[in-house]
Amino acid sequence: MKNLIRVILPKQYNLVVGDTFQIFYRGVVEAPNPYCYDILSVCEKGRNYPRYFEFTPEEEGEYDLTISVYSADKTLIGQGTTKLKVSKPVKPQKPVNVLCIGDSLTAGGTWVKEVHRRLCDDGIKNVSFIGTCRKDEVGFEGYGGWEWSNYVAGEKTSSLWVTCNSDKKVCDQHSLWKDEKGEIWQLETIDIGRLKFNRYGGHKGERTTGVLTHYQNAVSKTPIEIINTYDEQANPFTIWKKAR
Description:
This protein is mainly β. It has three domains: 12-87, Immunoglobulins (Immunoglobulin-like, Sandwich), CATH 2.60.40; 96-142, no CATH class; 158-231. 11% of the residues lie in helices and 39% in strands.
């Protein structure tokens, strides 16, 4: 069988007893729209659904999983295999600290909170998620627009809060604005009475007061009259180094 479509799977998935596992086909079938094909998951455990495979293990074990892709005439055009290894959760012998670091995909703490749930919901108490940002009880470090260099270089955050009377809406998110010095700022977050901007292109410009004028991509092009500005937060690793 010639693979016309790749099914990209790791050699093994590590599952935990009692925790639901899902594989969505859009993430493993290399096609613009995998759901236009017939996709079949074959495993002695779990269930096959139109968009994903799901398995909630009740006991330890190892199971082979094959995902096959068929054309409209039932011709096999792609296939991948993997192994599902199920184990019981094991409490670490010593306390463990977990630090999750990232950019805007981490800033809301959504995936970090899910990792915390998967690690700690079985009564494991000696795993701590640390960091100055918080999602409920879960700590992490995540800032919109940051790259790894922002952390290691000891620079302050690239994000700046601007307090103002603004008419900006969701459709204006990610638009670009210019200050009186010619520096470009990208609108990232729209909040009541304030807006958060990233320093577009990595410039080091500072903001105090003044006006931001429209540069690109906004629906509402009304100038933003600044009342006050403040950095979202200093680099947490810079603070830590100074504390040492």
